């Protein structure tokens, strides 16, 4: 196998590992968002009714299914607005709504409709936001990303198989006379396929090791640096099972390459005799 | 050992180039296969070597009916037939030793035995000092002797040779035929395809003459000692 084939093998393995690692990381981000947002609701009071804040907090604290009620300080609200308005002076002058952060008991959540009704009665214009409208979109995006990652991994695996088969075919065609000689000396198709497999094992192993090392380095850098590079992601992590799956990629790639090489070589050896 | 009975052969839908061939090659016999270029000598040798199957008739090799022989049984049967190719067919990326060792490795022989047998056979053909030489570094005659060593190292019951003296000079050609004679004395059945009549006339063996696709057996000539 040529240097080019070794590099192609390495690239395929690296891409496969990276795509799978990305899909697994997205699954964890998805899960993190679900856990972080599903038990957090926000009550918003119009700035004109800021005086109702303590009354509303008292009502909320008395409701079952609400574990924690926190009045968000105005400074924190300004900090949250800062990235969108880019002007500290403007945020200082703006009339800010009152935000009350609720931690919901996930096992026994309060009725959203009943709570909305109660809040309207306590403070006109009060709104209850369960963050569902935008978290659902984000979660769908994460799920789509994961599905696309798995599909790309499948495409890479298929491409890798076809590449291995094409390489084996090319090598066999180049060595057609040698195969004919081996047949005439009494070699079986299985022996010839085995010889090609042994040759492919050496070069494929080199490619697989190169690809694994490259992908491992990239994954390590991304896991460490992603939170500072990617918005909305506080941390990127992989579970032990994900590491096990990633570790299985080079082993699987090698096994698949050997299987495809043997299968192709065996078929062609039969045809060349 | 080899029995042809009304065998015919054609390539694809072309004309029949071997017709009604009926001949028996006995154990320990020595035959020259002669005929003009294109007469079908190589085709006949290829049939004896299981590279081609007859398009009609009955061919038996070492007791196996070639017409019904299963593919899986061919490698073992081929290993009992040594073949010396006209163009040597040595593998340039291997040493002379490894080329000769190939049939033994294919047969699964142990490496220690391979070393012993290959060294002995290369010494026998006069190449004991060229074990590790690349075929490219050898002369035509030396390459031919490596090819002969490879054909006989597995001690086949039958040895087929296609124009083994075709690319060597007269002296080397005679030396090669002496090697075949030695093998013959050891009990190997030998068929040598050649159109070198001057060489044939120096040996007393029977001839198989191919003319217009038909095979005729001619008795060997008396050779003055």
Structure description:
The complex is a heterodimer of chains A (273) and B (225). Chain A has nine helices and four strands, in the order H-E-H-E-H-H-E-H-E-H-H-H-H. Chain A has 273 residues and is an alpha+beta fold. Chain A is rod-shaped, with a radius of gyration of 30 Å. Chain B has helices at residues 41-48, 74-78, 96-106, 111-124, 140-152, 170-185, 197-200; strands at 2-10, 16-25, 30-35, 56-61, 64-65, 81-84, 158-162, 189-193, 206-211, 214-218. The two termini of chain B are 30 Å apart. The A-B interface holds A 177-178, 181-188, 191, 270 and B 49, 51, 71-72, 75-79, 83, 85, 89, 91, 102-103, 106-107, 150.
Layout of helices and strands, plus pairs?
The complex is a heterodimer of chains A (273) and B (225).
Chain A: H1 3-38, E1 40-45, H2 53-61, E2 66-71, H3 74-85, H4 88-93, E3 98-104, H5 112-122, E4 127-129, H6 132-174, H7 176-184, H8 189-229, H9 240-272
Antiparallel strand pairs in A: 1-3, 1-4, 2-3
Helix pairs in contact in A: 1-6, 1-8, 1-9, 2-5, 6-9, 8-9
Chain B: E1 2-10, E2 16-25, E3 30-35, H1 41-48, E4 56-61, E5 64-65, H2 74-78, E6 81-84, H3 96-106, H4 111-124, H5 140-152, E7 158-162, H6 170-185, E8 189-193, H7 197-200, E9 206-211, E10 214-218
Parallel strand pairs in B: 3-8, 3-9, 6-7, 7-8
Antiparallel strand pairs in B: 1-2, 1-4, 4-5, 9-10
Helix pairs in contact in B: 3-4, 3-5, 4-5, 5-6
Q: What is the overall silhouette of chain A? A: rod-shaped
How would you sum up the major sheet of chain A? 4 strands, antiparallel
Radius of gyration of chain A: 30 Å
Elements of chain A, N to C (H/E)? HEHEHHEHEHHHH
Structural class of chain B: alpha/beta
The mean pLDDT of chain A is 85
* Order of strands across the main sheet of chain B: 6-7-8-3-9-10
Structural class of chain A: alpha+beta
Report helical residue fraction of chain A.
over 70%
What kind of sheet is the major sheet of chain B? 6 strands, mixed
């Amino acid at each position: 196998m040529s240097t080019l084939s070794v590099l192609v093998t390495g690239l395929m393995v690296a891409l496969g590992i990276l795509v799978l690692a990305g899909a697994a990381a997205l699954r964890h981000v998805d899960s993190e968002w679900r856990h972080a947002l599903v038990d957090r609701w926000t009550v918003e009071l119009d700035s004109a009714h800021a005086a109702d804040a303590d009354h509303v907090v008292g009502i909320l604290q008395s409701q079952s299914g609400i574990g924690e009620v926190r009045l968000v300080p105005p400074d924190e609200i300004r900090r949250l607005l800062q990235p969108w308005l880019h002007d500290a002076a403007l945020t200082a002058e703006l009339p800010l709504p009152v935000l009350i952060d609720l931690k919901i008991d996930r096992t026994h959540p309060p009725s959203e409709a009943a709570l909305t009704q109660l809040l309207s009665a306590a403070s006109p214009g009060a709104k209850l936001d369960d963050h569902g409208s935008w978290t659902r979109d984000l979660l769908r995006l994460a799920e789509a990303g994961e599905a696309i990652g798995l599909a790309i991994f499948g495409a890479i695996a298929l491409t890798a198989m076809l590449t291995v088969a094409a390489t084996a075919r090319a090598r066999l065609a180049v060595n057609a006379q040698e195969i004919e000689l081996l047949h005439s000396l009494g070699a079986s198709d299985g022996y010839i396929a085995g010889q090609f497999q042994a040759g492919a094992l050496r070069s494929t192993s080199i490619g697989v090791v190169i690809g694994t090392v490259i992908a491992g380095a990239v994954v390590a850098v991304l896991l460490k640096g992603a939170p500072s590079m990617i918005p909305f992601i506080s941390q990127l992590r992989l579970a032990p099972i994900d590491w096990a799956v990633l570790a299985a990629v080079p082993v699987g790639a090698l096994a698949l390459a050997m299987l495809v090489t043997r299968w192709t070589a065996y078929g062609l050896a039969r045809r060349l005799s | 050992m080899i029995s042809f009975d009304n065998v015919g052969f054609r390539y694809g839908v072309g004309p029949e180039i071997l017709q009604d061939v009926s001949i028996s090659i006995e154990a320990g016999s020595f035959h020259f296969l002669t005929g003009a270029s294109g007469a079908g000598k190589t085709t006949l040798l290829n049939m004896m070597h299981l590279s081609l199957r007859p398009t009609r008739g009955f061919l038996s090799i070492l007791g196996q009916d070639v017409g019904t022989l299963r593919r899986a049984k061919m490698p073992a049967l081929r290993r009992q037939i040594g073949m010396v190719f006209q163009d040597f067919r040595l593998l340039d990326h291997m040493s002379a030793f490894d080329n000769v060792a190939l049939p033994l490795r294919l047969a699964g022989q142990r490496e220690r035995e391979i070393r012993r047998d290959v060294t002995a056979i290369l010494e026998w053909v006069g190449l004991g000092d060229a074990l590790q030489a690349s075929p490219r570094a050898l002369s035509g005659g030396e390459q031919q002797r490596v090819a002969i060593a490879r054909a006989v190292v597995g001690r086949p019951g039958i040895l087929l040779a296609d124009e083994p003296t075709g690319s060597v000079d007269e002296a080397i050609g005679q030396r090669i035929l002496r090697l075949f004679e030695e093998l013959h004395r050891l009990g190997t059945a030998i068929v040598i395809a050649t159109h070198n009549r001057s060489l044939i006339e120096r040996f007393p063996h029977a001839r198989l003459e191919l003319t217009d696709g038909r095979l005729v057996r001619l008795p060997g000539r008396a050779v003055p000692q």
